[in-house]
Write a structure and sequence with these properties.
The chain is built from one helix and twelve strands; from the N terminus they run αββββββββββββ. The chain is mainly beta. It has a single domain, classed as Lipopolysaccharide (LPS) transport protein A like domain (lipopolysaccharide transport protein A fold, Sandwich), CATH 2.60.450.10. The termini are far apart.
Length: 198
C-alpha cells in the first residue's frame, strides 16, 4: 500500500496533522476497492436542463442533477460531463442538496459496503478511476446501513486502482482549524460475528 501526502509543510503541528491523515487513509485504504464493472457502464443522468455539445463531447447539466454509472451515484446542482476520444468519461460536479455540497456514492466490490463522499466540488475521472473531493470534503465507509469510518479535510482523493486515500487539511477543511480528522471503527473479527457458538 502506498501513502501519499505532502511533506512541504514546515510546522510540526501541520506535519502531525498530515501524519494522522495518512494513518486514517491507510486504515480506509484496505476497505476501498469499488465495483470494477462501473468503469464500463453507461452514464445515465437526470437534470432540470441540459446543454449537449456533440462536437466537443461536453454535456452541461443544471439543476437537481443525478448521475448513475453502475453503482456510482452523483448528485449536485451542476455537473459538466466530458468524454475523451478514447471513450473515457469524466465529470466535475458543484453544489448540491447536502449543505451546498456535491454527493458521491459507490459500492465496494463483492460485499455490502459503500464509499460515500461530499464536497463543494467533486471531480470524477473514469480514465484514472479516481474521485477528488475539494473544499469541505468528507468521505465515509458504510457496512450495510451502518457508518463504519469517516474522514474529513480540505481535499480528499480516492484512487480506486491503487486503493489509496489522500486527505489534506487546509482553510476549507470540513474539520475544525483546517486540520484533518477521522473516526475508524474496528472491523468485526470472524470469531465475534453474531451467532458464533462458544
Amino acid at each position: 500500500m502506498t501513502l501519499n501526502f505532502d511533506h512541504t509543510h514546515r510546522s510540526t503541528r501541520v506535519r502531525v496533522a498530515v501524519l494522522a491523515a495518512a494513518c486514517v487513509a491507510a486504515a480506509l485504504a484496505g476497505y476501498a476497492r469499488a465495483e470494477k464493472a462501473d468503469r464500463n457502464k453507461p452514464l445515465n443522468f437526470a437534470a432540470d436542463s441540459a446543454k449537449v455539445d456533440d462536437l466537443r463531447q461536453v454535456n452541461i447539466l443544471i439543476g437537481n442533477v443525478e448521475i448513475t454509472k453502475g453503482s456510482i451515484l452523483i448528485r449536485a446542482n451542476q455537473v459538466e460531463v466530458r468524454q475523451s476520444p478514447e471513450g473515457y468519461q469524466s465529470a466535475v460536479a458543484t453544489g448540491g442538496p447536502r449543505n451546498g455540497r456535491a454527493y458521491f456514492r459507490q459500492k465496494r466490490e463483492g460485499i455490502d459496503e459503500y464509499i460515500e463522499g461530499e464536497a463543494e466540488r467533486l471531480e470524477y475521472d473514469g480514465r484514472s478511476d479516481t474521485v477528488k473531493l475539494v473544499n469541505q470534503a468528507i468521505m465515509r465507509r458504510f457496512r450495510g446501513p451502518t457508518l463504519a469510518d469517516e474522514v474529513a479535510g480540505n481535499t480528499i482523493t480516492y484512487d480506486n486502482t491503487t486503493e489509496v486515500f489522500q486527505v489534506v487539511g487546509g482553510p476549507s477543511s470540513a474539520a475544525a482549524s483546517g486540520r484533518v480528522r477521522g473516526v475508524l471503527t474496528p472491523k468485526e473479527s470472524p470469531a465475534s460475528a453474531p451467532g458464533d457458538a462458544r
